[in-house]
Amino acid sequence: MMPNEKILSAQIRRRTLLGSMAAVGASAGLSTLGVSKAFAQEPEKPSEIIVRAWGGSWVDSLKAGVSDSFTKMTGIAVRHDLTEDNEIQPKIWAAVAQKRTPPIHINWDTTTNATKSALRGVTEDLSDLPNLKNTTDLAKPVGLDGYPIVNTYGYVYVLAYRPSAFPNGAPKSWKDLLDPKLKGRIALYNDGIGFHFPAQVAGGGKLEDIPANMQPAWDFIAKIKEQQPLLGEDPDFTTWFQKGEIDAACTISTNAREARKNGIELAWVVPEEGAKFDTDGLWIPKGLPENELYWAKQYINHALTKEAQQVWLDGLGLPGVVPGLTPPADLVGDPSYPTTEEDFKHLIRISSKVQVENESQWFAKFKEIMQG
Amino acid sequence: MTGSRSKSIVIWAFVVTALLMLSAPTIVVLGASFTAGNIITFPPEGLSLKWYGAIAQASDLRQAFFRSLIVATICTLISIPVGTLAGIALSKYRVRFARTIQIYLLLPFTIPLIGSGIGMMLVFGEMGALGKLWPVGIATCVINLPFMIWAVTASASNLSPDLELAAANCGAPPLQRFLYITLPAVLPGIITGSLLMFILALNEFLVSLLLVDARSVTLPVQIYNSIRSIITPDLAAISVVFIACAGVAIALLDRLVGLDIFLKSK
Amino acid sequence: MRHSRVAYPLTWRVMDVFERLAAAVWPSSFQRGLPYLMLLPAVVLVGLLVLGLIQIGDSSLRTLDTSTFMMSENYTLANYQRALSEKFFATVAGRSLMGAVIVTVITLIFAFPYAYLMVRTPSSALRKFLLVALFLPFFIGQVVRAYGWLIILGNQGMVNEALGLVGVPPMRLLYNYPAVLFGLVQYMLPFAVLMLAPALTAIPAELESAASSLGAGWVRTFRHIVLPLARPGLVGAGLVVVTLSLTDFAIPAILGGGSQDFIANAIYDQFFRTSDQGLGATLSLLLVAVGSILVGVVFMLFGAGTLAMGDERK
């Protein structure tokens, strides 16, 4: 836990520091205006830019918070491409390899996937975005030089559960999933994402042994396998909770919150072993015409303003990367919306570099256990 | 149908089971599109057309639907001559290496769709054709082409060599023999084959996903991508509209050429 | 097309022009080449896939470097070694192969009576109804269709509720191997029926009535007359179903509950989840090889179905 704690506490310190700076009045909208003026001549505006986003409430939030105000400010329409992040990746990579114009201007991506693209060298450098100076350390991708991607918020893989299935109170530990009552009633992501690290702790291992020795995680996952978990994706989890197929799942809090908003009986916790904390970000693929690249950068710059972050992340229910955001009323003090150093202590954050280098092995191992 | 009572019972038992298997989920989903509630349930909670109102507003869905129609039309128009010729060649003539050619022509089914999709994305990308609709039309044609070929060869047992010889003896030149004897004989196969090609292309999603972009997205891809958390009844409503349009198309086709004739045993 | 048989001399004259054109372009001395010319467009179209396969073949010989996420410069057989040695891939391959065979048998059993009734019924309305019922399921999309199944077969679904009325406790009907096979049968049924129907139209109904008038029961008539004559259709339908179920991706993903992967799911994971195009390409090629061998074996065991006709007639 040591190295992560260091990163986190450094980040929190900087957070508080920046909080006071932000108050001085580097109002986001103003700074964007400043940028556009700084260039004597704006490059020609494209009629529209294409932003890849996840569907459902994800794209609705992005549209309300970032895209609509960007269009209002610049007159450039924003079209959303709802292809999954995993599925757009080979399309972008092939486009760059074949020296074609990529199919999108901006990719809203998980930091892990974005890091792969950055390592491959298909992302544009974003270090010169003016609004980066107002962001916390969370915005900076760990283990990469500069800003080939910009993180825009963090999220937690919580343990979501149906309260009526836990009459004795909320589950406290990931080990509670081993209760015989829950046989066939739990769900994990297909590739086990979000579950590997807490499983390492629950299996009696140490986080600093990642990635060298993850046997405790595999032992714990093998025990979970005996519980016959269902494996799926976000829409599956929602459906399964809705139709009474499962009682607990390891999932991103945003999806659990969205399900609850739609009337599904659901609550969530960060168990004592901790929960995986990760980030999502925005990046621009290489190969765009100069002027479109300029306006794509302006879009990301705009997404880093406090106003845009506030509305976007209210929709997602996630903590952003600019100081001074107000949490949505239903998430004040919620462990899935970490704001204090104390909150972060319960969360597990592993550098993206370690994750991308080992992820395929972890997925393979997880699959091998689950498909056996 | 001639035959005993027990024959009817056995056949109907299989057919009814098959019908149940085929239609149960569809009926449930279609019924749910008329719900007044916010989730897909069956029986629906109250009746309303609100989800149809919701999709009527969505112009992007309408555009995606028209793109799918274009793709399916391109696919069918290409597959009819290509599949018919290949089918007749394989069934009427003695071809050297026929088995190897058949294994080759079955590649669209033995290559997993993801492999075909990735491969064609690279090929069309190299040509600089991605983002247009015709590559999607060609791709959907290629991956389903065996259906067309096999539908034609399956009806080729109707081909009677004697009939053709007779025509030749009466002085009918080759093209006429082809048009008036060979073609009508395999017409049932061409009709069922092209129906299948059209409907499969209309609904194709995995390969299309890799070939379209945000400006050329087709309806099945659009629907698949929009599902992120809650599956809402508007998706069911889209399906109903989709089916209704396809139903009109099939009815028109029936009026024009009479589907019935081609499927009935002679 | 039919009315033109009693056509005006004008059309005849037009036809003559075409005939002469055809003869000029393709003199009868080229006759032997005709079937190959007819096959050419299909071979070219499928050639698009072969071009893709060549690219895939190239990636299959390169490994992924996870520090740069680029494929290695030099060729290696490491991916093939991995694919053939890891137990996981063997499990998944075995599951797909067995599934494909079971699904083919069951699908043919259901498709045959369906196609038979469809072509033999005197009622035109029933025929059209049966035809339309085949196409309906395609229109609701995989994800929504899975949701439909959940409403019917889920823990709180209609079937379990009905069972509950007679005192049977709810049981898990979905998200296991039988559920995947069931889903595949349902998905393949329309294809099989549509492949069988044209072959059945070619069997004269009089042949059957003749057999029964000679005292053969319908079961014997079926076995000795209808089935043998329908063999081309059965082989064709069987090949379609076996290859498509072997390479299917969607049904195991949505009805398998994540623990019943087929080979195509493993390929999807390599291409889209772990970005390892090399291993994904390798698995794809191996699958193509297995599928093609399977097709070859079917040809050897049952003849090439309809397609053997050319051979038999010489």
From TrEMBL, chain B:
Entry-linked InterPro entries: MetI-like, MetI-like_sf
Location(s) in or outside the cell: Cell inner membrane; Cell membrane
Pfam families documented for this protein: BPD_transp_1
Keyword Lyase in record: no
Major site of localization recorded for this protein: membrane
Keywords: Cell inner membrane, Cell membrane, Membrane, Transmembrane, Transmembrane helix, Transport
Record has Metal-binding as a keyword: no
Membrane topology, as annotated: Multi-pass membrane protein
Transmembrane spans: 9-34, 69-91, 103-124, 136-157, 178-202, 235-257
Sequence ranges assigned to domain ABC transmembrane type-1 in this UniProt record: 65-253
UniProt family annotation: Belongs to the binding-protein-dependent transport system permease family.
Name assigned to this protein: ABC transporter permease
Originating species: Mycoplana rhizolycopersici
Organism phylogeny: Bacteria, Pseudomonadati, Pseudomonadota, Alphaproteobacteria, Hyphomicrobiales
Automatic annotation (TrEMBL), chain C:
Pfam short name (any one): BPD_transp_1
Membrane recorded as keyword: yes
PANTHER family (UniProt xref): INNER MEMBRANE ABC TRANSPORTER PERMEASE PROTEIN YDCU-RELATED, INNER MEMBRANE ABC TRANSPORTER PERMEASE PROTEIN YDCU-RELATED-RELATED
Matches recorded under PROSITE patterns: ABC_TM1
Domain of life: Bacteria
Protein name: ABC transporter permease
Record keywords: Cell membrane, Membrane, Transmembrane, Transmembrane helix, Transport
